[in-house]
Protein backbone atom coordinates (compact mmCIF):
# COMPACT_ATOMS: atom_id res chain seq x y z
CA UNK A 1 0.00 0.00 0.00
CA UNK A 2 1.36 3.40 -1.01
CA UNK A 3 1.49 6.24 1.59
CA UNK A 4 -1.26 8.84 1.19
CA UNK A 5 -0.43 11.96 -0.79
CA UNK A 6 1.14 14.76 1.18
CA UNK A 7 2.40 12.52 4.02
CA UNK A 8 5.87 13.45 5.30
CA UNK A 9 7.45 10.66 7.35
CA UNK A 10 10.36 12.86 8.41
CA UNK A 11 8.09 15.54 9.85
CA UNK A 12 5.94 12.94 11.61
CA UNK A 13 9.02 11.28 13.10
CA UNK A 14 10.36 14.63 14.34
CA UNK A 15 6.95 15.43 15.87
CA UNK A 16 6.73 12.09 17.69
CA UNK A 17 10.33 12.35 18.90
CA UNK A 18 9.62 15.80 20.30
CA UNK A 19 6.58 14.52 22.19
CA UNK A 20 8.55 11.54 23.51
CA UNK A 21 11.28 13.87 24.74
CA UNK A 22 8.73 16.04 26.52
CA UNK A 23 7.20 13.00 28.22
CA UNK A 24 10.52 11.53 29.33
CA UNK A 25 11.73 14.85 30.71
CA UNK A 26 8.57 15.66 32.64
CA UNK A 27 7.09 12.33 33.81
CA UNK A 28 9.63 11.88 36.59
CA UNK A 29 8.97 15.39 37.91
CA UNK A 30 5.16 15.10 38.17
CA UNK A 31 4.04 15.12 41.77
CA UNK A 32 0.68 16.96 41.74
CA UNK A 33 -2.07 14.90 40.13
CA UNK A 34 -5.79 14.91 39.51
CA UNK A 35 -7.64 12.24 41.49
CA UNK A 36 -8.84 9.67 38.97
CA UNK A 37 -12.52 9.34 38.15
CA UNK A 38 -13.16 6.05 39.96
CA UNK A 39 -11.67 7.25 43.25
CA UNK A 40 -13.25 10.69 43.02
CA UNK A 41 -16.66 9.19 42.27
CA UNK A 42 -16.91 7.54 45.71
CA UNK A 43 -16.93 10.94 47.47
CA UNK A 44 -16.16 13.89 45.22
CA UNK A 45 -16.51 16.50 47.97
CA UNK A 46 -13.59 14.97 49.89
CA UNK A 47 -11.18 16.21 47.20
CA UNK A 48 -12.73 19.64 46.56
CA UNK A 49 -11.59 22.81 48.39
CA UNK A 50 -14.21 24.57 50.49
CA UNK A 51 -12.51 27.89 51.14
CA UNK A 52 -9.29 28.43 49.17
CA UNK A 53 -7.83 27.40 45.81
CA UNK A 54 -4.09 26.72 45.74
CA UNK A 55 -2.41 26.04 42.41
CA UNK A 56 -4.08 25.86 39.00
CA UNK A 57 -6.55 22.97 39.27
CA UNK A 58 -9.29 24.81 41.21
CA UNK A 59 -8.29 28.35 40.34
CA UNK A 60 -11.11 30.70 39.35
CA UNK A 61 -13.98 28.81 41.00
CA UNK A 62 -16.68 31.25 42.05
CA UNK A 63 -17.20 29.69 45.50
CA UNK A 64 -13.52 30.31 46.37
CA UNK A 65 -13.22 33.96 45.37
CA UNK A 66 -13.53 35.34 48.91
CA UNK A 67 -10.07 34.05 49.81
CA UNK A 68 -8.48 35.67 46.73
CA UNK A 69 -8.92 39.05 48.42
CA UNK A 70 -7.25 37.69 51.55
CA UNK A 71 -4.28 36.56 49.46
CA UNK A 72 -3.81 40.14 48.19
CA UNK A 73 -4.26 41.57 51.68
CA UNK A 74 -1.66 39.19 53.14
CA UNK A 75 0.82 40.15 50.41
CA UNK A 76 0.18 43.84 51.06
CA UNK A 77 0.75 43.40 54.80
CA UNK A 78 3.94 41.45 54.07
CA UNK A 79 5.27 44.23 51.83
CA UNK A 80 4.39 46.87 54.42
CA UNK A 81 6.13 44.93 57.16
CA UNK A 82 9.31 44.62 55.10
CA UNK A 83 9.13 48.25 53.85
CA UNK A 84 8.85 47.14 50.23
CA UNK A 85 6.91 49.20 47.69
CA UNK A 86 6.01 46.31 45.39
CA UNK A 87 6.32 42.54 44.87
CA UNK A 88 9.00 42.74 42.17
CA UNK A 89 11.60 40.93 44.28
CA UNK A 90 9.31 37.91 44.81
CA UNK A 91 8.16 37.86 41.18
CA UNK A 92 11.74 37.92 39.91
CA UNK A 93 12.67 35.00 42.15
CA UNK A 94 9.80 32.85 40.89
CA UNK A 95 10.24 33.65 37.17
CA UNK A 96 13.24 31.34 36.95
CA UNK A 97 11.23 28.48 38.53
CA UNK A 98 8.11 28.78 36.38
CA UNK A 99 8.89 25.99 33.90
CA UNK A 100 10.10 23.63 36.60
CA UNK A 101 6.87 24.27 38.52
CA UNK A 102 4.75 23.54 35.45
CA UNK A 103 6.38 20.14 35.10
CA UNK A 104 5.20 19.21 38.61
CA UNK A 105 1.59 19.12 37.42
CA UNK A 106 0.47 16.08 35.49
CA UNK A 107 -1.99 18.07 33.39
CA UNK A 108 -0.92 20.85 31.00
CA UNK A 109 -1.50 24.26 32.62
CA UNK A 110 -3.43 26.67 30.38
CA UNK A 111 -2.21 29.77 32.27
CA UNK A 112 0.18 32.15 30.57
CA UNK A 113 3.63 32.65 32.06
CA UNK A 114 2.52 35.89 33.75
CA UNK A 115 -0.62 34.26 35.17
CA UNK A 116 1.32 31.24 36.41
CA UNK A 117 3.93 33.38 38.18
CA UNK A 118 1.31 35.67 39.72
CA UNK A 119 -0.60 32.65 41.03
CA UNK A 120 2.50 31.10 42.61
CA UNK A 121 3.55 34.34 44.29
CA UNK A 122 0.10 35.06 45.71
CA UNK A 123 -0.60 31.47 46.77
CA UNK A 124 2.90 30.87 48.14
CA UNK A 125 3.09 34.09 50.15
CA UNK A 126 -0.42 33.46 51.50
CA UNK A 127 0.49 29.97 52.73
CA UNK A 128 3.70 31.12 54.39
CA UNK A 129 2.11 34.14 56.04
CA UNK A 130 -0.86 32.07 57.19
CA UNK A 131 1.40 29.53 58.89
CA UNK A 132 3.55 32.24 60.46
CA UNK A 133 0.49 34.07 61.83
CA UNK A 134 -0.92 30.77 63.12
CA UNK A 135 2.22 30.16 65.17
CA UNK A 136 3.01 33.80 66.06
CA UNK A 137 -0.17 35.62 67.06
CA UNK A 138 1.60 38.99 67.28
CA UNK A 139 1.91 39.01 63.47
CA UNK A 140 -1.86 39.01 63.03
CA UNK A 141 -3.65 42.18 62.00
CA UNK A 142 -6.42 43.13 64.44
CA UNK A 143 -8.95 43.07 61.59
CA UNK A 144 -7.85 39.70 60.22
CA UNK A 145 -11.15 37.82 59.84
CA UNK A 146 -9.34 34.53 59.19
CA UNK A 147 -8.26 34.32 62.81
CA UNK A 148 -11.42 35.90 64.18
CA UNK A 149 -13.47 32.86 63.14
CA UNK A 150 -12.24 29.39 64.08
CA UNK A 151 -14.15 27.70 61.27
CA UNK A 152 -12.06 29.50 58.63
CA UNK A 153 -8.75 28.27 60.06
CA UNK A 154 -10.24 24.77 60.36
CA UNK A 155 -11.37 24.86 56.73
CA UNK A 156 -8.00 26.19 55.54
CA UNK A 157 -6.18 23.37 57.32
CA UNK A 158 -8.38 20.92 55.45
CA UNK A 159 -8.03 22.64 52.06
CA UNK A 160 -4.25 22.98 52.19
CA UNK A 161 -3.99 19.19 52.60
CA UNK A 162 -5.99 18.35 49.47
CA UNK A 163 -4.14 16.28 46.87
CA UNK A 164 -5.11 18.59 43.99
CA UNK A 165 -4.65 21.82 45.95
CA UNK A 166 -0.86 21.97 46.14
CA UNK A 167 2.12 24.12 45.17
CA UNK A 168 5.55 22.56 44.61
CA UNK A 169 7.44 22.73 47.89
CA UNK A 170 10.48 24.35 46.29
CA UNK A 171 8.29 27.39 45.47
CA UNK A 172 7.44 27.76 49.16
CA UNK A 173 11.11 27.37 50.07
CA UNK A 174 12.15 30.09 47.62
CA UNK A 175 9.57 32.56 48.94
CA UNK A 176 10.38 31.64 52.54
CA UNK A 177 14.03 32.52 51.90
CA UNK A 178 12.93 36.10 51.23
CA UNK A 179 10.26 36.35 53.94
CA UNK A 180 12.36 34.96 56.80
CA UNK A 181 16.00 33.81 56.91
CA UNK A 182 17.51 32.26 53.74
CA UNK A 183 18.15 28.53 53.70
CA UNK A 184 16.33 27.87 56.98
CA UNK A 185 13.86 25.46 55.42
CA UNK A 186 13.69 23.40 58.58
CA UNK A 187 11.92 26.41 60.07
CA UNK A 188 9.35 26.27 57.25
CA UNK A 189 8.84 22.56 57.88
CA UNK A 190 8.32 23.23 61.57
CA UNK A 191 5.70 25.93 60.88
CA UNK A 192 3.84 23.63 58.48
CA UNK A 193 3.78 20.73 60.93
CA UNK A 194 2.48 23.02 63.69
CA UNK A 195 -0.23 24.40 61.39
CA UNK A 196 -1.59 20.94 60.52
CA UNK A 197 -1.27 19.40 63.98
CA UNK A 198 -4.97 19.93 64.86
CA UNK A 199 -5.99 18.07 61.72
CA UNK A 200 -4.35 14.78 62.66
CA UNK A 201 -6.94 12.26 63.92
CA UNK A 202 -4.53 10.48 66.23
CA UNK A 203 -0.96 10.24 67.53
CA UNK A 204 1.94 9.38 65.29
CA UNK A 205 3.18 12.87 64.59
CA UNK A 206 6.92 12.65 64.18
CA UNK A 207 9.03 15.68 63.34
CA UNK A 208 12.06 14.74 61.28
CA UNK A 209 13.68 18.12 60.70
CA UNK A 210 17.19 18.41 59.35
CA UNK A 211 18.99 20.67 56.95
CA UNK A 212 18.45 18.44 53.91
CA UNK A 213 14.94 17.14 54.56
CA UNK A 214 13.28 19.68 52.26
CA UNK A 215 14.91 18.08 49.21
CA UNK A 216 12.65 15.04 49.67
CA UNK A 217 9.41 16.99 50.09
CA UNK A 218 7.17 17.45 47.06
CA UNK A 219 4.39 19.52 48.62
CA UNK A 220 2.57 20.05 51.93
CA UNK A 221 0.54 16.85 51.68
CA UNK A 222 3.75 14.88 51.09
CA UNK A 223 5.35 16.64 54.06
CA UNK A 224 2.62 15.45 56.42
CA UNK A 225 2.72 11.94 54.96
CA UNK A 226 6.48 11.78 55.55
CA UNK A 227 6.18 12.92 59.17
CA UNK A 228 3.01 11.20 60.41
CA UNK A 229 4.47 7.74 60.81
CA UNK A 230 4.10 4.42 62.62
CA UNK A 231 6.93 3.10 64.75
CA UNK A 232 7.52 0.37 62.17
CA UNK A 233 8.16 2.84 59.34
CA UNK A 234 10.75 1.44 56.95
CA UNK A 235 10.56 -2.10 58.32
CA UNK A 236 9.65 -4.75 55.74
CA UNK A 237 6.55 -6.74 56.82
CA UNK A 238 7.20 -10.34 57.96
CA UNK A 239 10.77 -9.40 58.87
CA UNK A 240 12.42 -11.64 56.28
CA UNK A 241 11.33 -9.64 53.26
CA UNK A 242 9.22 -12.51 51.96
CA UNK A 243 6.11 -11.80 49.96
CA UNK A 244 3.16 -13.34 51.79
CA UNK A 245 0.37 -11.78 49.79
CA UNK A 246 -2.47 -14.26 49.47
CA UNK A 247 -1.51 -16.20 52.61
CA UNK A 248 -3.86 -14.20 54.80
CA UNK A 249 -7.50 -13.17 54.76
CA UNK A 250 -9.31 -10.26 56.34
CA UNK A 251 -10.30 -10.50 59.99
CA UNK A 252 -13.86 -10.59 61.37
CA UNK A 253 -15.61 -7.40 62.48
CA UNK A 254 -15.63 -6.15 66.06
CA UNK A 255 -18.77 -8.03 67.09
CA UNK A 256 -17.43 -11.33 65.74
CA UNK A 257 -14.05 -10.75 67.35
CA UNK A 258 -15.69 -10.39 70.73
CA UNK A 259 -17.70 -13.55 70.09
CA UNK A 260 -14.37 -15.30 69.45
CA UNK A 261 -12.98 -14.11 72.75
CA UNK A 262 -10.80 -11.27 71.48
CA UNK A 263 -10.47 -8.49 74.05
CA UNK A 264 -10.29 -4.90 72.76
CA UNK A 265 -8.07 -2.47 74.65
CA UNK A 266 -7.19 1.18 74.03
CA UNK A 267 -3.49 2.00 74.33
CA UNK A 268 -2.17 5.52 74.87
CA UNK A 269 1.10 7.06 73.81
CA UNK A 270 1.58 4.99 70.68
CA UNK A 271 1.36 5.97 67.03
CA UNK A 272 -2.15 5.66 65.61
CA UNK A 273 -0.88 2.91 63.32
CA UNK A 274 0.76 0.80 66.04
CA UNK A 275 -1.95 -1.85 66.45
CA UNK A 276 -0.89 -4.96 68.35
CA UNK A 277 -2.37 -8.40 69.01
CA UNK A 278 -1.02 -10.49 71.85
CA UNK A 279 -2.54 -13.43 73.76
CA UNK A 280 -6.08 -12.74 72.55
CA UNK A 281 -5.89 -9.01 73.28
CA UNK A 282 -6.06 -6.45 70.46
CA UNK A 283 -4.47 -3.17 71.46
CA UNK A 284 -5.53 -0.16 69.38
CA UNK A 285 -4.57 3.52 69.80
CA UNK A 286 -7.50 5.99 69.98
CA UNK A 287 -8.82 7.48 66.73
CA UNK A 288 -10.71 10.80 66.63
CA UNK A 289 -13.39 11.12 63.96
CA UNK A 290 -14.58 14.66 63.08
CA UNK A 291 -15.88 16.52 60.04
CA UNK A 292 -12.49 16.72 58.29
CA UNK A 293 -11.25 13.21 59.03
CA UNK A 294 -12.67 11.46 55.97
CA UNK A 295 -11.25 14.06 53.58
CA UNK A 296 -7.90 13.91 55.39
CA UNK A 297 -7.66 10.12 55.06
CA UNK A 298 -8.90 10.08 51.47
CA UNK A 299 -6.33 12.59 50.24
CA UNK A 300 -3.47 10.80 51.96
CA UNK A 301 -4.68 7.53 50.43
CA UNK A 302 -4.81 9.23 47.01
CA UNK A 303 -1.22 10.40 47.55
CA UNK A 304 -0.17 6.82 48.34
CA UNK A 305 -1.98 5.55 45.23
CA UNK A 306 0.17 7.81 43.06
CA UNK A 307 3.37 7.44 45.09
CA UNK A 308 6.06 5.50 43.19
CA UNK A 309 7.15 3.69 46.36
CA UNK A 310 4.38 1.18 47.04
CA UNK A 311 5.87 0.24 50.41
CA UNK A 312 4.79 3.60 51.88
CA UNK A 313 1.11 2.72 52.24
CA UNK A 314 0.71 3.15 55.99
CA UNK A 315 -2.54 5.11 55.75
CA UNK A 316 -4.10 2.80 53.15
CA UNK A 317 -3.20 -0.25 55.23
CA UNK A 318 -4.46 1.29 58.47
CA UNK A 319 -7.79 2.35 56.98
CA UNK A 320 -8.19 -1.10 55.41
CA UNK A 321 -7.61 -2.73 58.80
CA UNK A 322 -10.17 -0.47 60.49
CA UNK A 323 -12.61 -1.20 57.66
CA UNK A 324 -12.41 -4.87 58.66
CA UNK A 325 -13.29 -4.02 62.26
CA UNK A 326 -16.21 -1.76 61.31
CA UNK A 327 -19.13 -3.27 59.41
CA UNK A 328 -22.05 -1.66 61.23
CA UNK A 329 -22.98 1.10 63.71
CA UNK A 330 -22.85 -1.57 66.45
CA UNK A 331 -19.15 -2.10 65.75
CA UNK A 332 -18.56 1.65 66.10
CA UNK A 333 -20.52 1.65 69.36
CA UNK A 334 -18.35 -1.11 70.81
CA UNK A 335 -15.11 0.58 69.76
CA UNK A 336 -16.37 3.88 71.19
CA UNK A 337 -17.31 2.20 74.47
CA UNK A 338 -13.73 0.94 74.74
CA UNK A 339 -12.33 4.42 74.03
CA UNK A 340 -10.80 3.35 70.71
CA UNK A 341 -12.99 5.66 68.62
CA UNK A 342 -13.66 9.22 69.78
CA UNK A 343 -16.74 10.04 67.70
CA UNK A 344 -17.15 13.80 67.38
CA UNK A 345 -19.75 13.30 64.66
CA UNK A 346 -22.08 11.76 67.23
CA UNK A 347 -23.63 9.32 64.76
CA UNK A 348 -22.31 5.75 64.73
CA UNK A 349 -23.96 5.01 61.39
CA UNK A 350 -22.15 7.90 59.69
CA UNK A 351 -18.80 6.61 60.96
CA UNK A 352 -19.54 3.06 59.81
CA UNK A 353 -20.45 4.33 56.33
CA UNK A 354 -17.19 6.30 56.13
CA UNK A 355 -15.09 3.19 56.71
CA UNK A 356 -17.30 0.92 54.61
CA UNK A 357 -16.71 3.13 51.56
CA UNK A 358 -13.27 4.59 52.18
CA UNK A 359 -11.44 1.68 50.53
CA UNK A 360 -13.68 1.63 47.44
CA UNK A 361 -11.73 2.15 44.18
CA UNK A 362 -8.47 1.91 46.16
CA UNK A 363 -5.81 -0.52 44.96
CA UNK A 364 -4.66 -2.69 47.80
CA UNK A 365 -3.66 -4.14 50.06
CA UNK A 366 -0.27 -4.64 48.49
CA UNK A 367 2.27 -7.37 49.11
CA UNK A 368 3.71 -5.04 51.76
CA UNK A 369 0.49 -4.93 53.82
CA UNK A 370 1.74 -3.85 57.24
CA UNK A 371 -0.83 -5.79 59.28
CA UNK A 372 -0.51 -9.17 57.53
CA UNK A 373 1.08 -10.83 60.56
CA UNK A 374 -1.59 -9.46 62.91
CA UNK A 375 -4.52 -10.61 60.76
CA UNK A 376 -2.98 -14.07 60.46
CA UNK A 377 -2.66 -14.41 64.23
CA UNK A 378 -6.18 -13.01 64.79
CA UNK A 379 -7.67 -15.50 62.34
CA UNK A 380 -5.81 -18.38 63.99
CA UNK A 381 -7.17 -17.28 67.37
CA UNK A 382 -10.73 -16.94 66.05
CA UNK A 383 -10.53 -20.35 64.36
CA UNK A 384 -9.99 -22.22 67.65
CA UNK A 385 -13.22 -23.63 69.07
CA UNK A 386 -11.93 -23.41 72.61
CA UNK A 387 -11.68 -19.63 72.34
CA UNK A 388 -15.24 -19.37 71.06
CA UNK A 389 -16.54 -21.64 73.84
CA UNK A 390 -14.75 -19.64 76.51
CA UNK A 391 -16.05 -16.38 75.03
CA UNK A 392 -19.60 -17.74 75.01
CA UNK A 393 -19.23 -18.88 78.62
CA UNK A 394 -17.98 -15.46 79.68
CA UNK A 395 -20.66 -13.65 77.71
CA UNK A 396 -23.63 -15.74 78.82
CA UNK A 397 -22.72 -16.78 82.33
CA UNK A 398 -19.79 -14.80 83.71
CA UNK A 399 -20.54 -11.28 82.47
CA UNK A 400 -21.83 -10.02 85.86
CA UNK A 401 -21.28 -10.75 89.57
CA UNK A 402 -24.84 -12.10 89.92
CA UNK A 403 -24.38 -14.48 87.00
CA UNK A 404 -21.12 -15.70 88.53
CA UNK A 405 -22.80 -16.22 91.92
CA UNK A 406 -25.61 -18.17 90.25
CA UNK A 407 -23.11 -20.44 88.50
CA UNK A 408 -21.17 -20.92 91.71
CA UNK A 409 -24.36 -21.75 93.62
CA UNK A 410 -25.36 -24.23 90.95
CA UNK A 411 -21.95 -25.90 91.12
CA UNK A 412 -22.16 -26.14 94.93
CA UNK A 413 -25.66 -27.60 94.67
CA UNK A 414 -24.47 -30.08 92.04
CA UNK A 415 -21.53 -31.06 94.25
CA UNK A 416 -23.82 -31.60 97.27
CA UNK A 417 -26.25 -33.63 95.17
CA UNK A 418 -23.40 -35.75 93.85
CA UNK A 419 -22.07 -36.28 97.39
CA UNK A 420 -25.51 -37.30 98.66
CA UNK A 421 -25.90 -39.74 95.78
CA UNK A 422 -22.52 -41.32 96.55
CA UNK A 423 -23.46 -41.83 100.20
CA UNK A 424 -26.82 -43.26 99.18
CA UNK A 425 -25.33 -45.77 96.78
CA UNK A 426 -22.38 -46.60 99.01
CA UNK A 427 -23.67 -46.23 102.57
CA UNK A 428 -21.10 -46.22 105.37
CA UNK A 429 -20.93 -49.47 107.36
Layout of helices and strands, plus pairs?
Layout: H1 9-26, H2 37-42, H3 66-81, H4 88-95, H5 98-102, H6 113-135, H7 150-159, H8 169-179, H9 185-196, H10 220-227, H11 254-259, E1 263-266, E2 276-278, E3 281-284, E4 287-289, H12 293-306, H13 314-325, H14 329-337, E5 341-343, H15 348-357, H16 372-382, H17 385-397, H18 401-425
Parallel strand pairs: 1-3, 4-5
Antiparallel strand pairs: 2-3
What is the count of β-strands?
5
Number of helices: 18
Helix content range: 40-55%
Taking the sheet with the most strands, its summary is: 3 strands, mixed
Distance between the ends: 120 Å
Strand percentage: under 5%
Bulk shape: elongated
Helix/strand/pairing class, anyone? mainly alpha
Query: Measured on Cα atoms, how large is the radius of gyration?
Result: 29 Å
Low-confidence stretches: 210-215, 239-246
Order of helix and strand elements from N to C terminus: HHHHHHHHHHHEEEEHHHEHHHH
Protein name: UPF0481 protein
What features would you describe in this structure?
- The protein is mainly alpha-helical and 429 residues long.
- The protein has 3 domains: 204 residues, no CATH class; 130 residues, no CATH class; 40 residues.
- Helix content is 51%, strand content 4%.
- It contains 18 helices and 5 strands.
- It has a 3-stranded mixed β-sheet, covered by helices on one side.
- Strand 2 and strand 3 form a beta hairpin.
- The termini are far apart.
- About 3% of the residues have low confidence.
- It comes from Camellia lanceoleosa.
- This is UPF0481 protein.
Amino acid sequence: MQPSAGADSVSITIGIDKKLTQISSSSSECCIFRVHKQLRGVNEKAYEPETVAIGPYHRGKHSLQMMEEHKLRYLQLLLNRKNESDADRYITAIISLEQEARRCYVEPISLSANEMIEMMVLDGCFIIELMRKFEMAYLRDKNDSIFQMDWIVSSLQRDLMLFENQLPFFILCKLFDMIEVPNQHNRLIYLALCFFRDLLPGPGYRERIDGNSHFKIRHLLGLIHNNWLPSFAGIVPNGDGSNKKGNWRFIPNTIELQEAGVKLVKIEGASLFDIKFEYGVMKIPPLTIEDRTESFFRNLIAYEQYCPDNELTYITDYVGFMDCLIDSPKDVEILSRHGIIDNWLGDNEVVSKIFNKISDAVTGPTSHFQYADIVNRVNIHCGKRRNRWMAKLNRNYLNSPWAFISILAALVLLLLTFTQTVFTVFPRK
